Amino acid sequence: MSNQAGKDKQRPDHKKYLVVQFVRNLVGVVIVVALLGWVVFGLFGPGSGTLVEVRAFMLLFLLCFVLIQCHGAVINTRRDFLRGKWVMGDPGGIEPDGVLNPWRRIAPTALPMGIAISLAVWSVLPLTGRESFRLLTIDAIAFVPLWVVTSVLIAFILPRDQVSFACALAEKSPGPVPSLSGYFLLEHVLPWGVIQGVINMGIGIKQFKWVLEGPEPAEAIAASLVAWDFGIVFGILFFFMFLASDGQVRGDVRLGRLTKKRFRRSKVGRIGVPLVAVGVIITTVVVMTAVALIMEVILAGAGLTDFSVETAVAFKTVSAMLGTLAGCGAGVWWGRRRESALVAAEERE
Asked: Which of 173, 201, 218 is the last residue of a domain?
């Protein structure tokens, strides 16, 4: 008992732990702003954007990434609690509300705030009187509202979720247990499919217009470009959706929100994190390449050689949704299996 008490004293309580999430959020916002800005206006543009392009970018980017950053903060906090990286202290009058679906936790506040801030920036941009913006200016315009709004939302959302999650684990009260199919569809595939579909549709419009109107203009989008773009998008989202769903499902297994399934003889729980990481990366590369090659064969077999911008964007959007479906499926399967094995091992000790 004294040894455990000593360990608890060394770990931050839930209030001090919030600093960790604020720092992670800052780093995450910097990365996504720099990366998406470069992809949209650097890789698929001249390093700048017109007023119309920047307004459209802000509208989609801010709305989607307000949700993504808040979801990541909730999932990371829950997973860190399971791994003993913080302990529950005095809740300070915060009552648990039994909300365990992370999307239900963030949507009532993050969604309207995301809509409000994206519309606000969209409305203000014309007032600058500028017809074009350089990449660094675009990054700055995106960074400030995204960082401020997500920081405020994390400060508002996380404390109650910490209390609710910790109490549910302690009391073993998961509430209504969803079916596996309903859980997979409503808490993983549907929200992520909509978000990733919207993001990639927006990127696709800019990307394929740049192919036709850029420094090396073309009359149509080549089938090989569409096929490899399909494979790359599928692979990238397979990777990131695997990580998101794997992280989310860990807490749900511990809560008992998923149907109990034991893997007492499985060695999956003993596989180290580095080996898992290598395996996921290799799998992603293989999947990305295989999907691209399969698409090339399918398009060639159908006699399709050129596409319009609209059709190429449709392929990219479908690829994003399919990659999300595959990544979420793999993440739920792996996370459930691995966490179940860890639970079984703990019960045997």
From this structure: 173
Q: What is the pLDDT of residues 175-191, one digit of tens each?
A: 778 889 999 999 999 99
Q: Report pLDDT digits (tens) over 287-296.
A: 999 999 999 9
Q: 49 and 120 share a domain?
A: yes
Kindly state the tokens that stand for 244.
Answer: 């998101």
Cα R_g (the chain), whole angstroms: 22
| pLDDT of 143 higher than 50 | yes
- Give yes or no: residues 22 and 169 share one domain: yes
- Average of per-residue pLDDT values in the chain: 91
Which tokens in the block code for residue 251?
């807490």
Average the pLDDT over 281-288 and give the result.
91
Q: How far is CA 180 from CA 4, 49, 257, 324, 337, in A?
A: 35, 44, 9, 17, 13
- List C-alpha distances in Å: 259 to 127, 179, 255, 336: 54, 7, 11, 10
Number of domains in the chain: 2
Would you give the DSSP letter of residue 269? G
* 276 contacts: CB under 8 Å, gap ≥ 6: none
- Segments forming the whole domain that contains residue 42: 12-173
Say which residue the tokens 């893997």 belong to.
263
Can you give the pLDDT at residue 349?
Answer: 64
Residues 6+ apart with CB under 8 A from 141: 54, 58, 121, 125, 133
Domain end, chosen from 124, 149, 173, is at 173
- For residue 8, is pLDDT > 80? no
